[in-house]
Each structure stands twice: as structure tokens, then as C-alpha cells.
Amino acid sequence: MHGGRIYEYAQRSGRSPDEVFDFSANINPFGPPISVLSAIRTAMEGIRHYPDARHADVIQSIRTRHHLKEKQAVFCGNGASEIIDLIMRSIAPKRLFVFEPAFAEYHRAARRVGAKVIRISIVPGDISHMSGFAQGLTFALEMAMRGDMVVINNPHNPTGLCWQREEFIDTVEKLCEKQVTVVVDESFMDFRWDEKGKTVMGDVERLRYLVVVRSATKMYAIPGLRFGFGVAHEDLVARIDSDRDRWSVNHLAQVAAAAAYRDDRFVHETWNWLRAEQGYILETWGTHEAVQLYDPSVNYFLLRLKEAIPVHIIFQQFEREGIFVRCCEDFMGLDERYIRIAIKSHADNARLWHAFLNATENLP
Q1: In a 3-state reduction of DSSP, which class is residue 86?
Q2: Per residue in 193-220, is it b (16+ CB within 10 Å) or e — as a string?
Q3: What is the spatial distance between Cα 211 and Cα 228, in angstroms, rounded to a whole number?
Q4: What is the C-alpha to C-alpha distance for residues 136 and 98, in angstroms, rounded to an integer?
Q5: Residue 126, pLDDT score
């Protein structure tokens, strides 16, 4: 089940949405940027017109931000979910190889086009036939055939694992040579100050079967507007754009995203905050004897509560305080002891940590 159900949380806890502490959605606590809010206010009169079906201004903003070359084409959508769906409907793969645990939208999009899902586990200690990213890449390369699709999520949600480009680009190249479409979902890559060594966006010009997915929702805190984009070789983008709803990205979402991708200062401020808070997470959650922490690489972290902790009591205590986190039992390979937690402001992070300490200290 998707996180960020703020209105449901408010109703359950008898609070207003503003009184809920939502750690289940990985949204930048600094946003939306002032530049984005200003751009939206200025653009309000434009809602009397249909949105730009070409997405011209926001695409130019994206191209400038990411230094894209001529054959590195961009297509936009109503969030990363629509980008994934556009790719899936255009390619209509026979089979989809997914590294699990994974974003549920991959499965939903595959089901809508009748693709068979092949699950590859990357959870340490999982009892399935394939464990570990490197082994999973080998398995995908051996098994995938022309007309199939492979999805790689980097940085990975929900584990937070983040791989260097050099760790998997050779496999991506070989899959593309087999005419297997490779989708690399980089929805959280904006939170990486070292993304240059991790992103494969620069490879789409030479790899015609590679697509990179990005999202503005997380970094720029605009989930209520929704904006995502894909980058691929111009031939593949022309194919995707040839049969789609060109009105799906509304006027305000385009204006907001265009302003966001021009705001370098906001990005650097976010990076500085995130470095400090990741350190705080390591000093707190990372030192508790009842917690197994997956080191945070972006704006969320995964942890596993050890058997001595009654998970349902922890959740009940959190909810009494208006705090909601993401239980990961519906992710393949994880159970109710795995929790994904968004990194928020220092005050909020400290509030959650002390709520956990209070809950565990009062256990029988």
C-alpha cells in the first residue's frame, strides 16, 4: 500500500492533516521551493487555457539542468507512475523482470499490458532462488530475450541501496544489444549529490533500448501537482509519444516543474540538510540494539525491528501521537518488522526517535 495517505491518517487519528506527522511518504520537508510557489501564483491565469501539449518550457528546463544532448529526448507525464505506464503500453513486453522488493506500480503496469512478471530478490537472507543485485543482473541477462523488459530501481525503494553506474552498465549494454528494454527508475536520484557516478541518463543516446525515469514529486515536494519525466533515445521517445494523452500534464504542474529544475540553490540546500540528518539517523537508529538499519543513501531509510520488539505496539504508540510510518509487509521478501521511514526536519526526526524510545522503554 502506498505511503502518504495523509487524509486517511488524519481521520484515523482524529487530527487535521496539518497535525499529522507523516513519515510514510518520502517528500522533501523544505519544499515546495519559493521559486515554484511564485511561478504557480504567476501562472494561475493560464488555467483558462489547455496546457502545452508539447511540454516545451519544462522540457527545455530539464534539458538545461541535465545537460542533455540532441538525441537524448525527454517525455513528460503525470508523475513517475504515468511515465512507467507510458513505457509499458508502448513497448508491451512479453515479460517484465523486476528486482524485489519493488514499487507496486511496476506490477500494475505490467498487468495492464498482459506481461508476465519475473521476480528477482535482492533482499539479503531471502530464501528465494536468487539473492543479491549482482546475481540478479546475471540472471536477467541469461533469461531475458528480445521483447522483454527489465526494471532497475536506483536508488532502490524501499531498501535505500544505491549502486554505482559501473556496477551494472555492462549488463544494461548487453541487454540492450539483445533488444531487451531496460528501464532505470531514478526517481530519488536528485537527492544524491554524487549522482554523476550513479545515473545512466547520459547513456540513452547510444543505447536505444534504455529509458531513465525521474520524478519531481519527491525532491520538490509537489505530489499534489504530480510531475515526472523520462529520458530515452529520440526514436524510442517518438514511439512513446505517438499514442498517448498529450493533455495529462496540467498547466500548473508544467510551470512548477520548469521553475523547480532551474532552482540549483534549493537542491544544494537540500543536500546539506540531508547529509546532516543521515548522520543523525546513523547515530540514533543505527546504534539501537533492537534495530537493524539499512544505511540511508537518500531521504528515507529502511530498518528491521528485531524479534524482541512487538511491532504492533510500536505502531499503536506512534498513531496515538499522530505519527505514521510505512510498514513494508506488502513488499515481496519483507515482513511486518521492516519499516521505511522518511527523513524529515531535524525536529520531526528527533520527535520520531524519542517516540520510539518511549514506546520501547514502556514495554513489559
Answers
A1: helix
A2: eebeebbbbbbbbebbbbbbbbbbbbbb
A3: 13
A4: 9
A5: 46
Q: From the CA atom positions of the chain, what is the Rg in Å?
A: 21
Phi, psi angles (nearest 5°) of residue 115: -85, 140
Three-class SS of residue 92?
Answer: coil
C-beta atoms surrounding 61 within 10 Å: 20
Three-state DSSP class for residue 349: helix
Average pLDDT on 263-270 reads 98
| Torsion angle in degrees (nearest 10) through CA of 312, 318, 320, 323 | -140
Q: What is the pLDDT of residue 99?
A: 94
Name the pTM for this structure.
0.93
The three-state secondary structure class of 198 is coil
Torsion sign, CA atoms 39, 41, 45, 46: positive
- pLDDT computed for residue 320 by the predictor: 87
Contact in structure between 112 and 85 (CB atoms under 8 Å): yes
Q: What is the pLDDT of residue 12?
A: 67
**176 with 209: CB under 8 angstroms?**
yes
Question: Pick from 318, 324, 253, 226: which is nearest to 5 by CA?
Answer: 324
Q: What is the per-residue DSSP string for 237-259?
A: HHHHHTTS-TT-S-HHHHHHHHH
Query: Are the C-beta atoms of residues 130 and 139 closer than 8 Å to each other?
Result: yes
| Alpha-carbon gap, residue 199 to 184, rounded angstroms | 9
The answer on pLDDT for 125 being more than 60 is no
Mean pLDDT over 311-336 rounds to 90
Could you give the 3-state DSSP secondary structure of residue 206?
coil
Helix (H), strand (E) at residue 181:
strand 181-185
Question: How far is it between the farthest Cα atoms of the chain?
Answer: 64
Q: Is 339 helix (H, G, I), strand (E, B) or coil?
A: strand
Note the Cα 125 to chain centre separation in Å. 24
In the three-class reduction of DSSP (H, G, I as helix; E, B as strand; rest coil), residue 346 is classed as: helix
Q: What pairing do the DSSP bridges indicate for beta strands 228-233 and 210-215?
A: antiparallel
Supply angle C-alpha 189, 98, 246, rounded to 5: 65
Q: Beginning with the edge strand found earlier in the chain, give each strand of the sheet holding 326-327 in spatial order.
A: 291-294, 300-305, 338-342, 326-327
